[in-house]
Amino acid sequence: MSNSSPEPSPILFFETINAYQRTAAIKAALELDIFSAIADGQTTVEALAAKCDASPRGVRILCDYLVMMGFLTKQNGSYQLTQDSSIFLTRQSPAYAGGVTEFLLSPTLMEGFQDIAAAVRKGGTVMPDEGTVAPDNPVWVKFARGMASMMMMPAQMMAKLVDAEAEQKLKILDIAAGHGMFGITIAKRFPNAEVVALDWPNVLEVAKENAEQAGVGDRYSTIAGSAFDVEFGSNYDLILLTNFLHHFNEATCVSLLQKVNKALSDDGKVLTLEFVPDEDRVSPPGAASFSLVMLASTPQGDAYTFSELEKMLKQAGFSHNELHQLPPTPQQLVISQK
Amino acid sequence: MSNSSPEPSPILFFETINAYQRTAAIKAALELDIFSAIADGQTTVEALAAKCDASPRGVRILCDYLVMMGFLTKQNGSYQLTQDSSIFLTRQSPAYAGGVTEFLLSPTLMEGFQDIAAAVRKGGTVMPDEGTVAPDNPVWVKFARGMASMMMMPAQMMAKLVDAEAEQKLKILDIAAGHGMFGITIAKRFPNAEVVALDWPNVLEVAKENAEQAGVGDRYSTIAGSAFDVEFGSNYDLILLTNFLHHFNEATCVSLLQKVNKALSDDGKVLTLEFVPDEDRVSPPGAASFSLVMLASTPQGDAYTFSELEKMLKQAGFSHNELHQLPPTPQQLVISQK
Description:
alpha/beta
């Protein structure tokens, strides 16, 4: 070993082997609602144990672990929230995102990670029935229910990037709408916009609820079924393709994009929200790591680079394609025109 | 929000929710023996896929993820090992540590993390039969087989801290010996040392194999049973208590330490290897995070601070106690005398 090399260390290996314990700890903290209890002024082990109906020993060990991970701070035996924990992990906050566990830690999604070696051998999910892209997979209802809060931030960023007059009539198609928040947020910004949401029928129930709650229910209609099978209609000003393409291989994406192209008005735009890694495919971490999720849970999906997306979009007739970063979210937006 | 605060970000939360995927990825890489294949000169996706009998698509996605985690580097589509991956994760290396997954990712240990919220409520493991400290739990054979390689580094550091003449006769008791590497390493350094290893009978088979392989089998004897029940013998110069106290509550530790005290010669020393967090209990991460492992897998175990260990040791009649850090391992050594 050269003297200039740092001392060999197995620490990264140990931390990675034990990384699943971090998932287990944050899940438990949300279940016990530790963060809301601290926001409520219960900051000592004894007070938190009483509030969360748990043992002082268990609360002390869990909260120390949350400090170690960076979700809490600790001073003189008293725990405090970080800014991010206060915003995203307390039920008192409108941006509470704890509900994402319903989808992100659903048995369906986690099952895909039970045997990654097998998925690497095969080159795709080893879950039965094509994994999460199986028709009507009930995991998408969990997605729609769990992920709405977390998608508020990218939805608002996306709505701001819609370049139209305030009073303009906009005909919007929201493909694989899920919770519907992307279309709904645009509808809130543009009072003359009308949204057509497309998804499985059980998922559309969630989107419709959200549209009603947001006060745009009278401008919200739906198409139930698979985006590959149903008629889209035509002459849309905006078509939203959010977190959809990554589930499929390139040929499937191109054929869908051709269908999208036909449904779009001549000066319409397609907004594609995706995890778009840099061309090296190993950065930034949030986007780059998403490929493994697709390997684990779909037959042929991927996190496509911008050059791959651009190639597919061009094949489908979109000559202008722009990439937008959406920090601090891990996602990117591609805006395409014919 | 004050303007001086950084932008709110859900990134840490997302990363932690998905942390289990890191565990799944490193486990798969070891199963497919990706690191050894790269050490063997297979550095492209195609070459690795052929060598590891896997799909190019799966290999590309897994290797990119390993780059993202810091286990590999990538240049011009070719993957290279980091120094630490080369030392600890390739089978060509004598320090190969991939075998730790047999213990650290055993169903028994991982089961304890299935429901941390329940463990926090209860204040201890929710696994049946006292979790990992149940008599004769077969997980300790996995421990003995899987952890030997990883314990070489602390074992060698510990052996160097034994302050004795090279030719001195040393009578050593190795309590809960497991793989036996701590006693064996000292026996290799001191040719007149004799080691008595204590553990469950099935575990001792592993220790005896390792002692034979290390060439110290003729100075190696065993006592089969529970450390709390069997007779230790007396007049030991060294007693090793490695990774044992953390499984038990303080009263149990004190009663064991009293038994240890009686078995030790007047000028003998006890070497206690532990995860010893700082007094704030939230640093350093390797030691501090170990409390959660004990909450998940034992009824009342813990990662004790030095002041807690010192209090127990003093109660058991040890008046001199010194804490030694063992970097880069996450562990600490306490050396005690009457």
